[in-house]
Amino acid sequence: MTSLLIRKLEQRDTVPDDEKQDLEGALARVKEFQADEDMVREGDRPSESILLLEGFAARYKLLSNGKRQITAIHVPGDFVDLHSFLQKKMDHSIVALTLCRGGLFPHENLRQITDTHLHLGRLLWLSTLIDAAIHREWLVAMGRRPALNQIAHLVCELFLRLQTVGLTQDLSFQLPLTQAELGDVLGLSTVHVNRVIQELRASEAVVWRGDTVTIEDWPRLQEIAEYDPTYLILDREPR
Fold first, then answer.
1. What is the pTM of this model?
2. For labelling, which of 53, 85, 124, 228 has a CA lying 20 to 30 Å from the CA of 79?
């Protein structure tokens, strides 16, 4: 059940067999979430953290006027709320964007494995640091990049994150988000999202048909996005 998480961690460092076994043993059960179902709600005090096994999920904040801002997209292999282990009370919600399966790790089990395996604890800490780095990149994109650059940056990021866990086919990947959901990610209207997707298609850097995005010209896409993947920490080295 933890194979995608292990693959993600091993992109950054070697994970010994005993750490893999204890991480697998810490998973208590698997739960299915329907599309648009909240996996965790703002104000909750979770007693377990959720590892996304299948599907796409998102962190979000809901404003008083009913508008939603998505602050992160999660893909299989991501802990969607690992920080709740220490944070305790949730300051945002997490929603399943598609049908999702999540592996539930009781916080007591996480405490035991991080006390026993200090190296594994550092790798899980690194995962939360990468989450924070992604937040910074999104903040810069929303504040300073034109809409075309924003969406190109998102495509680059999701491709590399999905490639890390083996969920791409050559230069293609599935992006099962509606234009309204992309608008909640980018802070744009649905009409504007449609327009920038058409502009990205016209650049011939990608072919975007339905849920499938195929990168036709990676250097051109990186150029449009001004994309530097350093923040994803994809180098393997001792942690």
1. 0.96
2. 228
Of the candidates 28, 136, 159, which has an alpha carbon nearest to the alpha carbon of residue 72? 136
Residue 96 phi, psi (nearest 5) = -80, 120
Residue that has been written with the tokens 């909750």 in this structure: 44
* Residue environment code for 24-54, b if the CB has 16+ CB neighbours within 10 A, otherwise e: eebbeeeeebeeeeebbeeebebebbbbbbb
Encoding tokens for residue 182?
């992309």
- Which residues lie below 8 Å from residue 190, measured CB to CB, with a gap of 6+? 179, 180, 183
User: Going residue by residue through the chain (239 aa), what tens digit of pLDDT does each one get?
Assistant: 999 999 999 999 999 999 999 999 999 999 999 999 999 999 999 999 999 999 999 999 998 998 999 999 999 999 999 999 999 999 999 999 999 999 999 999 999 999 999 999 999 999 999 999 999 999 999 889 999 999 999 999 999 999 999 999 999 999 999 999 999 999 999 999 999 999 999 999 999 999 999 999 999 999 999 999 999 999 999 99
